[in-house]
Amino acid sequence: MPSCRAGNHPWDSQVECIKVGLNSMAVDEATKKRIDAWIRAEGRNDFGDPKGTNYAGGTPLFDMRTGRTRDRYDYILERNPQLKQEPAV
After folding, report:
1. Which of 80, 88, 84, 76 is nearest to 7 (CA)?
2. pLDDT by residue (tens digit) across 1-56?
3. What gap in Å lies between CA 24 and CA 20, rounded to an integer?
4. What pTM did the predictor assign?
């Protein structure tokens, strides 16, 4: 399985980022920018959840059953599918 590149988020250095098999999708740069803008505009945390959300293990990306960490953008898109498409102009 391919490894993810560390990004600019504080939790990136704390976990080994491995994409989770076929469930992982390639997220293009335009979608990543749209997600990041949505997070800022909505006042969400780095995972797209309400600020103050606590996670077992410190991150919602780590699966303790498999020992794998999923991609942050895949996690956000799974929980917020409306962000997959460009907004209508």
Report:
1. 76
2. 334 444 555 554 444 343 334 445 689 999 999 999 999 999 999 999 999 999 98
3. 5
4. 0.69
Length of the chain: 89
How far is Cα 2 from Cα 45, in angstroms, rounded to an integer?
26
DSSP letters of 7-42?
-SSGGGGGS--B--GGG-----HHHHHHHHHHHHHH
Per 3-state DSSP, the chain is made up of helix, strand and coil in percentages (nearest 5) of 40, 10, 50
- Angle at alpha carbon of residue 76, lines to 75 and 81, rounded to 5°: 110
**Identity (one letter) of the amino acid at 36?**
D
Q: Tokens 């953008």 correspond to what residue? A: 73
Euclidean distance between CA atoms 88 and 76, whole angstroms: 20
Q: How do beta strands 62-63 and 68-69 pair?
A: antiparallel
